[in-house]
Every structure is written in structure tokens, then in C-alpha cells.
Design brief:
The chain is mostly helical. It is built from 7 helices and 5 strands. Helices cover 42% and strands 7% of the residues.
Length: 252
């Protein structure tokens, strides 16, 4: 596992923890004065690795501090989805047909991530790609991830931001209210507290490392499904995460 033992988080399923690779077999020597190394950055790789590190740290911090674990989990969750944004835009720049590439690469006219994810195969393929089946996994679950981020980004009026807590079993504090234990006289629908499929809490303070495990699994499944709709072009030869380096010739 990339972060040492103990580590409750599975390794990065999209390749090694370091995506940089030298195009030239000669290893650059940092002691050589004036040597310049050129690299091509993959923001997807960078952000996904940062999210994975925070994900791991949230698990390690949980036994000592639930609030610190939750803080790390929130940061990781947002970085995972930011990595997904980078992935689809990076892939569009490399794979979409030249006359259509602007539809997904113009930052002044961004498409919602769910729409970009669905549109990319049509922009890249010469023939009609397999249809996306929005009601089949992982797409409904992926939509829940996007909906949660949207709820945090566009929080709405106070009535839509209410969260509920109950006394903990040991009486030492309060914990997020379990949807299965909502008092009968309190008119709260279960989906006001958690998403129906993944059980992700609407309250950002209630996000825990085990919720993040589910979120990452869905994101990885969505990447795999998108790759399948692109006939493997998304991850071919590690395209999505490679960061090749080369030593530039000496300057005269």
C-alpha cells in the first residue's frame, strides 16, 4: 500500500503512486549545474493522489479525533471530484475531434460534470458510442456524489441547511441523527439526512472516512465505465496519469 502500514485504504487502482516517468532512460543528475528537466503535468493524477493521501489520513486520525477525521474526509471528497473534473477536460483536449474539442475545454463555458462525462465519448468517437444507461450503476451513485458537492456549493436558504443530532450512546456528546431513529413527531424524510443509495450525509460535518470509501469506489467505477465507452482510450498506456519527463539539451 502506498502510505505504509497500517493503512485501511486500498492502493490507487489507476496505477502507481508516482506517475512521472523519464522519456530518456538516463536519470537526471541534480548535481549537474544548469540542467533543466521538462515534464508534462497530469492534474488528474496530482489531485487524485492528494485526495487518496487525505483519505488515508482520515482513517488514521479517526481513532483519535472524529472531527479531524471528518475534516480530512471533506477535503478528500472535494479533491476526488476535482480530479474527476480534470480527467474529463484533459481527456477531451486529447481525444475529442478537433472541431468539437471546444465544447468541453472552454473554461468560460463549463458544462456540469455529469453532462461532460456523458458527452465525451460522443465527441471522441467517429461512430455513435454505446449509450450511457443512467439508471444502471455506477451512474445513479455517481450522480449522488455530484449532488452532494452541489448542495455544499449552492447551499440554499437556512431551511435547506438544517442538520440534526442526538446524544451519543455513552452520553459524552452528540452524533448525527440516524435516519432509522428519527422521532415519530419529527417530520424529517430519510433522504433529508442521507443520500438514498450511498448513505452519504447531507451535513458536511457528518462525513466520515467510511463514506469516503464508498465515494472513491463509485468514482473509480465511473472512470472504468467511461473508459469502456471510449473503447479503452481514456487509460490506454496510462494516458490519463502519465507525467513524462525529459532532460533538455544544454543551452549554448
Amino acid at each position: 500500500m502506498p502510505f505504509g502500514d497500517p493503512d485501511p485504504v486500498t492502493p490507487d487502482s489507476f496505477g502507481p503512486s508516482n506517475g512521472r516517468a523519464l522519456a530518456d532512460p538516463e536519470i537526471p543528475d541534480p548535481s549537474v549545474s544548469g540542467q533543466v528537466i521538462e515534464t508534462t503535468v497530469s492534474p488528474f493524477h496530482c489531485l487524485y493522489q492528494d485526495a487518496l493521501w487525505l483519505h488515508t489520513q482520515s482513517h488514521l486520525r479517526l481513532p483519535r479525533s472524529e472531527s479531524e477525521a471528518s475534516r480530512l474526509a471533506r477535503a478528500s471528497f472535494l479533491l476526488y471530484l476535482q480530479a474527476a473534473e480534470a480527467l474529463v477536460h484533459q481527456a477531451a483536449a486529447e481525444l475529442a475531434r478537433p472541431e468539437l474539442v471546444h465544447l468541453l475545454t472552454d473554461p468560460s463555458r463549463p458544462l456540469p460534470l455529469g453532462e461532460a462525462w456523458a458527452l465525451l465519448p460522443a465527441l471522441a468517437a467517429e461512430e455513435r458510442p454505446p449509450a450511457l444507461e443512467p439508471d444502471r450503476p455506477p451512474w445513479p451513485q455517481f450522480a449522488e456524489l455530484l449532488a452532494l458537492r452541489a448542495a455544499w456549493t449552492y447551499p440554499g436558504p437556512p431551511a435547506s441547511r438544517r442538520a440534526y443530532y442526538s446524544a451519543s450512546a455513552d452520553g459524552t456528546g452528540f452524533e448525527p441523527l440516524d435516519p432509522r431513529r428519527v422521532p415519530a413527531d419529527l417530520a424529517i424524510a430519510p433522504d433529508q439526512l442521507r443520500s438514498p443509495r450511498l448513505g452519504l450525509p447531507s451535513d458536511p460535518y457528518a462525513l466520515r472516512p467510511h463514506h469516503l470509501d464508498s465515494a472513491r469506489a463509485v468514482l473509480d467505477q465511473a472512470i472504468t465505465a467511461l473508459d469502456r465507452r471510449l473503447d479503452g482510450a481514456l487509460t490506454q498506456d496510462g494516458r490519463h496519469r502519465k507525467e513524462p519527463c525529459r532532460v533538455l539539451p544544454p543551452r549554448s
